[in-house]
Design brief:
Structural class: alpha+beta
Order of helices and strands: HEHEHEHHHEEHHHHHEHHEEHHEHHHH
CATH architecture of the largest domain: 3-Layer(aba) Sandwich
Number of domains: 2
CATH class of the largest domain: Alpha Beta
CATH topology of the largest domain: D-Maltodextrin-Binding Protein, domain 2
Distance between the termini: 26 Å
Radius of gyration: 22 Å
C-alpha cells in the first residue's frame, strides 16, 4: 500500500508501463489546445486510488459526497486498484484511452504516462496552475518531471522516516549521545569510532548505500533530461570508497550485502548496529521486546551534505484524455487542498504537502506518545526535503546498483569500475524504454 515509503513495488513495472503507453499513445509531455480545463465543473468523472479502499472506504466516500454537494453538476465514480500490477493497469488504460480522469500516482508512475502525452501538464494549464502556491515548493517540485517542463500531479501526501540510534552504544564509544551525525563525514567518523572501540563487533549501519545516499552525499544522479545516470562521477566514487573502508573495519554489519529491511531492523533491536531507519511501529516493538534499547533510543534525520533530507511523494494526476477536465482538475484540487490533506494525514501516518500545514501543533508538539514522537521528528525532516530517487530508476536498476556496490565492498572491483558498470547497465535499460 503506497502509504508507506517502502511500498514502491509498482516501480519495477515502470519500463513495461512506458512500453504499453508509448505503443498506442501519441504526443509529448507538453500542453496543447485540448488541455483546456477552464469553465464550470460538470460531467461524470472517475477517480482511481491505489490500494486504499480496504482501510479508508468511509473517508473517501465522505470526501466524494462533500465534493458532489459543492458541485452538483459533477458525479464522481471511485475506483481502487490493488498494489500488485498497478503500473501495468495504468499503462493498459492509458494505451486504450480509458485512463481514469483523476489517478493516484507517484512520480515514477506519472513519468511514462506524461512522456507519452496522457497526463495534463499542470504548469501549462491555467485552471490548474492557479493552485500552485497552495502547496510547498518542495512538494510541487517533487511532481515536476525531468525533461517534460512541468508538474504532472497535484501534490497529495508526503512521507519520510527518521533514523533511530542507540545512545548507549554511542556512549560506550566515547561519543556524545546527544549529537548524532548530521553529515556524512560525521557519520563515517562515528562509524570508525564505534568499530575501533568495539574491536569491530559493533557496526554502525546494517546496509549498503542506496541511490538516496548518493543523492544526500551531494552526487549528481542524472543529467538534466533524465536520459543518462551520472552517479559514477568522482564524488560518487568517493562515497563508495568510504563505504568500502567502513566495511573493512567493521563499520558495516558483516551481512550488510544481503540484509533486508527486516533483518536490519532485527540487528538494531539486538543492539548489533547503532543506527537504523524506523517508524512509530518499531518504537512500540522496542518498548515491548527490548526495553533497555527503548530507554536509550535517539531519533534523528539521515545525514546529508546539502541540507536537504529525502522524502517520498504521492500525487493526483489528471488525464489529458478526460472529457471533463474542469471537473477533474476541481476534484483533484479538492482532495489535495489544505483541509482535506490535513484531515487525511490525521488518519494515516503521512504528512500534508500544503503550505503552512506542518507548522500546526499536531506536527510540531510531541504529545508524549510514540506516534507523536516520530511524527514530530519526521515532520521536521520534511521541511526542505526532496525526492532523491530518479523517477526513471526502476527496481531492476536499483538491484544493479546494489550488486555492483557489493562487488566494490568485497574488493572484486574498484569503486570507480563498479559504478561505471552500474551506470552502463542502467543506461542500456533506459535506452530500451
Amino acid at each position: 500500500m503506497p502509504i508507506s515509503p517502502l511500498s514502491r513495488r509498482a516501480a519495477a513495472a515502470v519500463p513495461l508501463l512506458a512500453s504499453a503507453v508509448l505503443l498506442t499513445a501519441c504526443g509529448s509531455g507538453g500542453g496543447s489546445g485540448d488541455d483546456d480545463a477552464s469553465g464550470r465543473p460538470e460531467g461524470g468523472i472517475t477517480f482511481q486510488t491505489w490500494n486504499l479502499r480496504s482501510n479508508f472506504k468511509d473517508y473517501f466516500e465522505g470526501l466524494i459526497g462533500e465534493f458532489e454537494k459543492q458541485n452538483p453538476d459533477v458525479k464522481v465514480k471511485w475506483l481502487d486498484q490493488p498494489a500488485d500490477n498497478y503500473a501495468e493497469k495504468l499503462g493498459a488504460d492509458a494505451g486504450a484511452g480509458t485512463l481514469p480522469d483523476v489517478v493516484n500516482v507517484s512520480p515514477d508512475l506519472s513519468y511514462p504516462l506524461a512522456k507519452a502525452g496522457t497526463l495534463l501538464n499542470l504548469d501549462r494549464e491555467k485552471a490548474a496552475a492557479r493552485y500552485k502556491d497552495e502547496y510547498t515548493p518542495e512538494a510541487w517540485q517533487g511532481n515536476t518531471l525531468p525533461g517534460l517542463d512541468g508538474a504532472y500531479a497535484f501534490p497529495w501526501y508526503l512521507n519520510t522516516g527518521p533514523l533511530f540510534y542507540n545512545k548507549a552504544l554511542f556512549r560506550q564509544a566515547g561519543l556524545d549521545p546527544e549529537k548524532p551525525p548530521k553529515t556524512y563525514d560525521e557519520l563515517f567518523a562515528t562509524a570508525t569510532a564505534l568499530a575501533r572501540k568495539s574491536g569491530g563487533k559493533t557496526a554502525t549501519l546494517a546496509g549498503t548505500p542506496s541511490i538516496e545516499d548518493f543523492g544526500r552525499y551531494g552526487v549528481r544522479l542524472m543529467n538534466a533530461d533524465a536520459t543518462k545516470f551520472t552517479y559514477n562521477e568522482p564524488r560518487g566514487v568517493e562515497l563508495l570508497g568510504k563505504y568500502k573502508e567502513l566495511y573493512g573495519i567493521g563499520g558495516l554489519d558483516t551481512q550488510a550485502l544481503t540484509n533486508t529491511a527486516d533483518t536490519s531492523g532485527q540487528k538494531f533491536l539486538e543492539q548489533k548496529v547503532a543506527i537504523n531507519p524506523g517508524s512509530a511501529h518499531d518504537l512500540d516493538t522496542f518498548k515491548k521486546n527490548a526495553p533497555a534499547l527503548y530507554k536509550e533510543l535517539g531519533i534523528t534525520d539521515a545525514p546529508n551534505n546539502n541540507g536537504k533530507p529525502n522524502m517520498y511523494v504521492m500525487g493526483l494526476a489528471v488525464s489529458k484524455q478526460s472529457r471533463h477536465k474542469a471537473a477533474a482538475v476541481a476534484f483533484a484540487h479538492f482532495v489535495t487542498d489544505r483541509g482535506n490533506q490535513e484531515g487525511f494525514a490525521h488518519k494515516v501516518a503521512v504528512f500534508p504537502s500544503t503550505k503552512g500545514s506542518l507548522d500546526d501543533a499536531y506536527w510540531t508538539k510531541d504529545d508524549g506518545t510514540d506516534e507523536g514522537r516520530v511524527r514530530v521528528a519526521s515532520a521536521k525532516i520534511l521541511k526542505g526535503a526532496v525526492n532523491y530517487t530518479p523517477v526513471v530508476m526502476s527496481e531492476e536498476m536499483k538491484v544493479i546498483l546494489k550488486n555492483e556496490v557489493a562487488k566494490a565492498l568485497q574488493g572484486k572491483k574498484s569503486p570507480e569500475q563498479a559504478l561505471d558498470d552500474a551506470v552502463a547497465q542502467s543506461d542500456k535499460l533506459l535506452g530500451q524504454g
